[in-house]
Amino acid sequence: MPSWSVGVRNVRGWARLAAALCLGALATAGLAVPGIAGAARPVQLSVVTGGTGGVYYVLGGGLASLLTRRLPGVNAVAEVTSASVDNILLLADKRAEIAFSLSDTAYLATQGSGPFQRTGPVPIRVLTVLYQNFNHLVVRAGSGIRTVADLRGKRVSTGAPGSGTEVTALRILRAYGLDPDRDLRRDFLGVAESADALRDGRLDAFFWSGGYPTGAVLDLASTPGFDIYIVPMGDIVPRLVERHGPFYSVATFAAGSYNGDVKQPTPTVGVPNVLLVHADMDEQLAYSIVRTIYDYKAELVAVHPSAEEISMETGPTSKVAPYHPGAIRFFRERGAWKE
Fold first, then answer.
1. Burial (0-12, 13-18, 19+ Cβ within 10 Å), 264
2. What distance lies between CA 282 and its chain's CA centroid?
3. How far is CA 156 from CA 19, 192, 236, 257, in A?
4. Is residue 185 a part of any domain in this protein?
5. Has residue 339 been placed in a domain?
6. Which residue, of 123, 170, 277, 300, is most buried by count of CB atoms within 10 Å of its CB?
7. CA separation (Å) from 49 to 30, 91, 335, 338?
8. Could you tell me if residue 338 is inside a domain?
9. Same domain for 39 and 125?
10. 166 and 244 share one domain
11. Could you tell me what percent of the chain has a pLDDT over 70?
12. Are the CB atoms for 169 and 159 separated by under 8 Å?
């Protein structure tokens, strides 16, 4: 188990609320922000991630550890959640300070549409683009499922409720002409639970949007006597872009990226991940978080290789929501911000 895992806790409960209240109290009192010596007490930051089998969980734990070690006056803790939708709702309620999210989900939040119709537009701000998610459609090799159309009548997990995986999976299915509620027998599982269910024969297929390799998929593909196949979906990207906006691109699994019948390059749907905060976050705090990510990026890469994609070229390029002023200041100082 990763060394930072002792700092991960479930998002539900008083601990998260206490963190938000503490941060608000510090801001109200005008106390020093991280990066400036003399902070009166630690600033508590909740970093909301995803399920235990995904990259958000791993990289979010690494980020919380990095901020705690490298920023004076900060104590950051990573939280287990259902991922993007849940994370943004927690930001909206100020029950979390830093959130991982898929770009398409973040855009829905700014519009107050889709899963955010009840809340209305959420005042999120971008800190940086992180890395690209690969949409996995995982089946057992030899199942006869080779295309998305072959899912008709099958038992399929479209991701945990409140996840970005679910948002993208439903869009993909509809783009291929399938009705998720009529043409499939849907389950609503996170990646770790989906992998277990496929292994046990309780699922025919599951969607997962994550960096690769994703631990839960890697473990499934390494099961003795169990070979997986990843269904290609790259051909649907133009239709997704036409219907939903420029959040999608073709991403390709390299041949051999997972054990099993993944022997050829496999094109799929790629979606960038963004790191989000509430618009009310203190500017110096936001600046310090982004600076720490870039100055100590190697420590995040050591946690998960997806962090290698964090770069000055892509970091300030998100169009899903405004950037936080603290992030803009950082990218300007480094000569990366394009006016």
1. exposed
2. 23
3. 37, 14, 19, 23
4. yes
5. no
6. 277
7. 29, 12, 29, 29
8. no
9. yes
10. yes
11. 88
12. yes
Give, as one character, the DSSP assignment of residue 324: P
How far is CA 11 from each of CA 17, 80, 122, 128, 295, rounded to the nearest angstrom?
9, 6, 19, 23, 28
**Structure tokens belonging to residue 135:** 């949409």
Tell me the CA distances in angstroms from 315 to 61, 106, 164, 307, 309, one per residue in order: 20, 16, 20, 12, 9
Same domain as 234, residue 162: yes
State the CATH number of the domain containing residue 208: 3.40.190.10
What does the block give as tokens for 227? 């070979």
Residue with tokens 């009192």: 29
Q: pLDDT at position 162, please?
A: 86
Tokens of 201: 């024969």
Do 94 and 172 reside in the same domain of the chain?
A: no
- Supply the DSSP string of 70-85, one letter for each residue: HSTTEEEEEEE-S-HH
Do 194 and 237 share a domain, yes or no? yes
pLDDT, block means (10 residues), the chain with 339 residues? 33 38 38 48 94 94 98 97 96 98 97 96 98 97 97 97 94 98 97 97 97 92 96 98 95 93 94 98 98 98 97 97 98 95
Question: What pLDDT was estimated at residue 42?
Answer: 87
Structure tokens at 184: 């499939």
Domain extent at residue 111: 3-130+273-333
Residues 125 and 189 in one domain: no
